[in-house]
Design brief:
single chain, 334 residues, Jelly Rolls, Immunoglobulin-like, six-stranded antiparallel sheet, 3 helices, 11% helix, 55% strand, flat
Length: 334
């Protein structure tokens, strides 16, 4: 009898152990996001190891090409810039080339890679020469001695900092570097009275590698932490905000590196805890953008009518991760 009771008692225990084993095997590994180089180049306080590897101009006597750290401009302040400075007596067209390159970095773990950056085109005082710029981002795989160009863009008019991202292949253990080459040129010949500097600036440049998880798209693929989500959201509010009557239109983005749909709540603010508009919520798929329309509160209409900029509060949820951030955008009236 004692032996029988012992055998009966083993049944539930074995079932419990078996269930735990099945759960452990079936549970997917949680995802993590690594950013390179050194956590991502935010350029907060320095160029963070980025260097100029080429700077030249077609009219060297009257045109100077340069690059480096810009502590006054960025998203937030702090960026690297490709600059073209023209002398007042340049009477012909010009074309400059500036290449900026990151320090080398080694990808620790394999996963889905995303190149992202914020860029700005500032034509400065050379507006009369109608400057235009084209930049190309190259991902250099030093281990395999190969290169890819995941992102190129042509800019023909001045713009604020705008986020861009592209999927990139990366391999664990390989050494990489990011190179950005900017060509700036004029489309109208200069005059003896014209001169100044035009700049293309870059901020928050990184390769984000999402590792682990089930590898499924859409809403699958493991869990982000709150901090990881916040770090990926820089540049997710795209300015300027456009006002038409009592409504403001703001473009919001869900970076591809988030790996899932973003649920975004947006509200215009005079300052933190003092709202100026209603709150609007929208779902944005990873790697996509959407315009969100906010209604100005009746008591706030006179104050907003005189504002050149407005603070916006964004609350983002992606899976179980949540993040809140603020960004001030320029107001444009139509």
């Amino acid at each position: 009898m004692r032996s029988t009771r012992g055998r009966r008692g083993l049944g539930p225990a074995l079932c419990c152990i078996a269930t735990m084993v099945v759960c452990l095997v079936a549970a997917p590994a949680q995802a993590a996001t690594d950013a390179y180089p050194a956590g991502g180049s935010t350029f907060s306080g320095s160029a963070q190891g980025w260097q100029v590897t080429d700077a030249s101009c077609s009219q060297p006597t009257f045109c100077t090409a340069s690059g480096g750290y810009d502590g006054a401009n960025g998203n937030p302040p702090g960026s690297i810039a490709a600059n073209t400075t023209i002398a007042v007596n340049l009477l012909t067209l010009f074309k400059s080339t500036v290449t900026l390159q990151s320090p080398d970095f080694t990808v620790a773990r394999a996963g889905d890679g995303t190149l992202r950056l914020d860029r700005q085109f500032d034509s400065g005082s050379l507006v009369d020469q109608a400057p235009q710029a084209t930049y190309a981002v190259t991902l250099i795989d030093r281990t395999a001695s190969v290169q890819s160009v995941p992102l190129t863009e042509s800019l023909s008019s001045a713009s604020g900092f705008t986020g861009k991202d592209r999927a990139v292949p990366v391999r664990a253990g390989h050494v990489y570097a990011i190179s950005i080459t900017t060509e700036t040129s004029s489309t109208v010949a200069g005059t003896a009275l014209g001169g100044g500097t035009t700049s293309v600036r870059f901020d928050n440049v990184s390769v984000a590698v999402r590792t682990g998880g089930s590898g499924s798209g859409g809403n699958g693929g493991g869990a982000l932490t709150n901090g990881q989500l916040l770090s990926l959201l820089k540049g997710s509010l795209v300015g300027p905000a456009r006002q038409k009557g009592n409504r403001l239109s703001v473009k919001v983005r869900c970076p591809a590196a988030v790996g899932r749909t973003c649920a975004i709540g947006l509200q215009g603010m005079f300052r933190k805890r003092k709202p100026a508009t209603s709150t609007r919520r929208a779902k944005v798929r990873k790697g996509k953008a959407k315009s969100v329309v906010l209604k100005v509160k009746p008591k706030a209409r006179k104050r907003i009518a005189t504002r050149k900029r407005l603070l916006f509060k964004a609350t983002v949820r992606a899976g179980k991760a949540r993040a809140t951030f603020y960004k001030r955008l320029k107001l444009v009236r139509r």
